[in-house]
Specification:
Elements (H helix, E strand, L loop, with lengths): L5 H7 L2 H43 L7 H9 L19 H17 L1 H5 L3 E5 L4 E6 H4 L12 H12 L5 E6 L13 H19 L7 E5 L12 H7 L1 E6 L14
Length: 256
């Protein structure tokens, strides 16, 4: 019997080299495909978030918790600066749905004011923000809402009285300094406006005091640029924020 020489065995096993090269190329091919799919996924995510943000600006879609978390992580799309970070991000889907329905209800009641840009509604990180612009509610340098705005305030108060959530009233100004006999700075003016509106709800509309808080932020939490008159007009505002939490438990009705 003729024995095979070592040279013949090497010759027959050379297919392993080609096979190894083929497997290496195939692996590289799938790596390229995977990298391409991940890049497309990232682009699709960016497009999706852009479309979602556009519809939220129009008020068509409520802001979801997941989208807020994405915005917090994206320095190009920050959360509005007057929304304070807090534990309210854990609001349940039911509460978020309540706030979205409340926004829609107020949008119907205040359609004229929204069209005139004296009221703005948006769902922010802390809850539903109802912005009352100075132009529609206050005389310049005054902390008391004018008489012409009382009908609008009554609509807002009547709607908010029917929901159990806490409210935070925030006063904001532009960066133009104020120094009058009544107010030495924008801090005093913004705080007085927030306090007076909270008093209106408590004394005038029987809101439980435990539901409300008030604070003044002066010019340090703008929502627009103070470089233009239009931007300064947007910054001069009082925000009523409907918070997704309940501090006052409604009294139970007595059973007869």
């Amino acid at each position: 019997m003729k024995r095979s020489t070592p040279q013949e065995r090497v010759h027959r096993d050379r297919w392993l080299v080609s096979y190894a090269d083929f497997i290496t190329l195939l692996f590289a091919f799938f790596v390229v495909l995977y990298a391409s799919s991940r890049a497309d996924e990232k682009k699709q995510s960016q497009i999706s978030h852009s479309i979602e943000s556009a519809f939220q600006v129009l008020g068509l879609f409520p802001v979801s918790v997941s989208s807020q978390q994405h915005r917090l992580a994206d320095p190009q799309n920050p959360v509005p600066v007057n929304i304070v970070a807090g534990d309210d991000l854990s609001a349940s889907p039911e509460v978020q749905q309540d706030l979205a329905q409340l926004q829609a209800q107020l949008a119907g009641l205040l359609s004229n004011q929204l069209a005139e840009h004296v009221v703005a509604l948006r769902l922010g990180r802390d809850g539903l923000v109802i912005s009352l612009r100075e132009a529609g509610f206050y005389e310049s340098g005054s902390a008391m809402p004018d008489q012409q705005s009382r009908a609008t305030l009554d609509k807002i108060a009547g709607t908010l009285a029917a929901v159990p959530y806490d409210l935070r009233v925030e006063g904001h100004t532009d960066n133009v300094p104020i120094h009058t006999q009544q107010f030495a700075s924008n801090w005093e003016l913004s705080t007085a406006r927030a306090t007076e509106l909270a008093k209106f709800l408590i004394v005038g509309r029987d809101f439980a005091p435990g539901r409300l808080s008030a604070a003044g932020f002066a010019e340090y939490h703008p929502v627009a640029s103070n470089a233009t008159a239009e931007g300064r007009g947007e910054n001069r505002r009082v925000d009523i924020i409907v918070l997704p939490r309940i501090s006052v438990v409604p009294a139970k009705k007595s059973q007869k």
